[in-house]
Sequence to fold (248 residues):
Amino acid sequence: MKLTLKIWRQKNAQAKGQMVTYPIDGIDGDMSFLEMMDVLNNELINKGEEPVVFDHDCREGICGSCSMFINGEAHGPDRLVTTCQLHMRKFKDGDTITIEPWRAAGFPVIKDLMVDRSSFDRIQHAGGFISINTSGNTQDANAIPIEKIDADAAFDAATCIGCGACVASCKNSSAMLFVSAKVSQFALLPQGQVEATDRVLNMVKQMDEEGFGNCTNTGACEVECPKGISLENIARMNREYLAASLKG
Fold:
């Protein structure tokens, strides 16, 4: 395939960025999107030009670091996949593809298509954990009875990989789907009840401090999420937050 790529180039968070057009040829439909980017970067390097910076790691759809906004969609036109699992057969010969970074105050640009998502780490540090007594008196988790429906819902919430597609898809740059998934995976389990009140209050507080917006109720986050995290988690987090606020 012959394609025209319009890619956002930006030296750092303070620099003014711009879209730069690159023609590319010889792209096979079985290539992944990142393999196509590798082909482009090889061409740029051979020409003595600076390659496009983009984030990636496992390339197996697990880590979520391959965050790209492709033709106005987080991770591109496919569903329930990350950018690294998006294949070029989703595009046609002659297509123009626009590639941008996540755009949110909480995700400042590092360079080109790579953004700083450490704000998600700080939200996790604020409450996304369970304190365990490791003195030798810990109870075996398998000995605690849990309703299957709750266990399944907790596992579904825990599949969130923190890629930030929900933020990139939301017109308010809301991180509520991410935060609610992290709150839900503990709120649904007895092990998470000890710190439930502090957890939701602290995580929501940190989310606000990072500059993420409020939920828009449009559902774009769930549609674009590569793991299909449900909006039900946002409703659950709102209930948890209300209950915690009344206790406080």
About this structure: Strands lie at 3-9, 18-24, 69-70, 73-74, 96-100, 109-111, 114-115. The two ends are 60 Å apart (CA to CA). Residues 118-247 form a domain with the Fumarate Reductase Iron-sulfur Protein; Chain B, domain 2 fold (CATH 1.10.1060.10). The helical segments are 33-46, 118-127, 148-158, 165-169, 176-187, 196-209, 220-224, 232-247.
